[in-house]
Specification:
The chain has about 120 residues and is of the alpha/beta class. The chain has one domain: 2-Layer Sandwich (Transcription Regulator spoIIAA), CATH 3.30.750.24. The protein is built from 4 helices and 7 strands; from the N terminus they run βββαββαβαβα. The strands form 2 sheets. Strands 1-2-4-6-7 form a 5-stranded mixed β-sheet, with helices on both faces. The chain has a two-stranded parallel ribbon with strand order 3-5. Strand 6, helix 3 and strand 7 form a beta-alpha-beta unit. Helix 1 runs parallel beside helix 2. The longest helix is centred in the N-terminal third of the chain and has 16 residues. It is globular, with a radius of gyration of 13 Å. The two termini are about 25 Å apart.
Length: about 120
């Protein structure tokens, strides 16, 4: 479904699953690709249920956090819902240090993320 090999998008259990297929999300083209992809998801259906799966991500930049916060706000304004899942310990720590773990719903794995949005 996705044209970008670093970002896999599929439908599962009535949700859109966005999976990052790279271990490092740093400044540059991958961050831009994520922003473009997430923007397109909102344009296609602003009330979607979206699970973002971080199971393969070991490191990410602060620019990525900014993209995610903007996406969360845009989605929430339109009645959509988002869950993050599969955060590896270093990425989980970043969310905790920035207190973004209080903004985002974070689940341990994809199954739990899908289950959270099913209700």
């Amino acid at each position: 479904m996705s044209e970008k090999p670093d970002i896999v998008i599929r439908r599962e259990a009535g949700c859109v699953v966005v999976e990052f297929a790279v271990p490092r999300i740093s400044e540059g083209t991958i961050v831009e690709a994520i922003q473009t992809t997430l923007t397109q998801l909102i344009e296609n259906d602003p009330q979607q249920k979206i699970v973002i799966d971080f199971q393969r991500v070991e490191l990410m930049s602060s620019a990525t956090l900014g993209v995610l916060v903007r996406f969360y706000r845009d989605l929430a304004e339109n009645g959509g819902r988002i869950v993050l899942c599969g955060l590896q310990p270093p990425v989980q720590k970043v969310f905790e240090l920035t207190r973004l773990d209080q903004l985002f719903r974070i689940e341990k794995d994809l199954a739990a993320g899908l289950s959270r949005l099913a209700g």
